[in-house]
Amino acid sequence: MAFKKTIDVQAAVAIAASEAIAARTQGTFGVGGLMLDQHGNVLQSLHNNVVKDGLVFDPTAHGERQLIDWYYAERARGRDLPPPQDITIVTSLDPCCMCSGAILAGGFNVVVAAPDKASGINHDNSASFSALPPALRARAGDSFSYPAILGSSLYARPAAGAVPKSFFIGKTISEPTQALCSLVFEATSSDVMALLNSDLPPPALQDPATLPADHAIVRALKQPYPDALTYRCAPHQPDAGLAPFLLQAMARDREHGGAGDAVALLDAFGNLLLCMAGRLTQSGIRSAFMETTRAYAQLRYKLLNGATPAQRDEVRRYLGHPKDGTFVFARGPDAGAVSYMNLGAYGSTMEGPLPLENPAQLQYVLPSVPDDELAAICAAMPPLYRDVIRIRPTQVADQALVAALA
Ligand SMILES: [Zn+2]
Question: If you measure from the C-alpha of residue 28 to the centroid of ligand 1, how many angstroms do you get, rounded to a whole number?
Fold first, then answer.
């Protein structure tokens, strides 16, 4: 792709739209995007990869998030790429909270085509970015562009947000291209959300701790995390026994350039499945939560892909949806861009209401901001996160666990 150059917003959005159609063909969210340097050269273009082969592959594999990880991976390999403030991401759909947090954490620019009233960072179409924590709003206003759509249809709009970078000669999107970006996403959204919520209900789940050590499911769990299934608590009630696992991952997080964060995933029985550190030296957005939720989705994908129907049934019985378990963050979210990305990625992992009997699915050990500030951050998020999933992190109840990490 490196030989391609786009100096018109319209030409760039047309590439994003064709990626979105490829995503729709793959059966995932119909969203695509590309990354441009300061001259308009196309560095990379790709599409959403949340679903592959009819299975959930990675709930964090949105276009913008993948482009940013691609950028950091290329730099880590020694490629001389311009700094993020000279890079423009062009996306067919308004970035969700995860992708907005990732864009702001890195300092990238973004040009947005279609709106997303449920999950978009500009869901209210005001370009005020009131869905973001206050300290991030001005930065979004300086880096998120919503080009004009000239015409009189329902797709028409005036330009809003930041002015696109100066290499763009044409700064508008045509109505048909904008309509295409909207319609391709709308055609896929409900089916993919349903697939992300098609797992067995808790009464149908079985305890993976009862499986023999050489079972394929146990081996798959121990591959990303050798300590899987070696700790267990009462369901949804992490206690001080989890502390050594979190502390070990927190130390690894520091070795990998992080501030000492770690995230554990407990299943519906209270079994420890994963406890991951971030990999911030690889990429500024590979936080502990991103690593944990992705690792769980991908180990399920690997087990399910190519399996017989009987094997698939077994995997689904022993490895349920994370919404029925508990994510335990060593450090609670703060008001920064990486935490906002994590909250958004948590929303992308759920993609539907939390179970009524498990409203405290997201727990943290050490608070980073006062509880009322965290409540305000969550209450300002776009409707999917605020009204449907109802994201509301709570501190773990066990004071011995808090003391062990403090
Ligand atoms: Zn996204």
Answer: 13
Per CATH, the homologous superfamily of domain 9-196 is Cytidine Deaminase, domain 2 (3.40.140.10)
Q: pLDDT for 308-343, tens place per residue?
A: 999 999 999 999 999 999 999 999 999 999 999 999
What are the tens digits of pLDDT across the range 366-404?
999 999 999 999 999 999 999 999 999 999 999 999 999
Going by pLDDT thresholds of 50, 70 and 90, the confidence category of residue 1 is: very low
Structure tokens that stand for 406 in this block: 């403090």
Query: Separation of 178 CA from ligand 1 center, angstroms?
Result: 18
pTM (predicted TM-score): 0.97
Ligand 1 mean position, distance from CA 291 (Å) = 16
Q: How far is the CA of 109 from the centre of ligand 1 (A)?
A: 15
What residues sit around ligand 1, an ion, with C-beta below 5 angstroms? 62, 96, 98-99
CA–centroid distance, residue 118 to ligand 1 (Å): 12
CA of 71 to the centre of ligand 1 (A): 16
CATH of 202-405, one of 3.40.50.620, 3.40.140.10, 3.30.470.20, 3.30.470.10: 3.40.140.10
